[in-house]
């Protein structure tokens, strides 16, 4: 466990992260779990970058087969 500094940055509070904890530049999701702050990097679409790792079954899902619609279209 390492110590670091918490400081004011404008109207926000910032935490200086040691180099070994560097996050990719961009947005993160912040959550509090039992008094512990958790930062999760987000991808460019705003989804957690490790979403598939969080829910492994996502990678196993297939698109459902859709039968061709043979009903006539009325105009």
From TrEMBL:
Tell me the Gene3D superfamilies matching this sequence.
2.10.260.10
Q: Which residues form the SpoVT-AbrB domain?
A: 4-44
Which PROSITE patterns does the protein's record reference? SPOVT_ABRB
Q: Which UniProt keywords apply?
A: DNA-binding
InterPro entries listed in its UniProt record: SpoVT-AbrB_dom (IPR007159), SpoVT-AbrB_sf (IPR037914)
Q: What is this protein called?
A: SpoVT-AbrB domain-containing protein
Q: Which organism is it from?
A: Luteolibacter arcticus
């Amino acid at each position: 466990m390492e110590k670091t500094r918490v400081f004011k940055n404008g109207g926000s509070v910032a935490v200086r992260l040691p180099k070994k904890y560097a996050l990719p530049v961009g947005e993160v999701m912040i959550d509090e779990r039992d008094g512990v702050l958790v930062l999760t990097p987000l991808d460019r679409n705003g989804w957690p970058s490790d979403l598939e790792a969080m829910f492994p079954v996502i990678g196993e899902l297939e698109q459902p087969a859709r039968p061709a619609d043979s009903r006539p279209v009325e105009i």
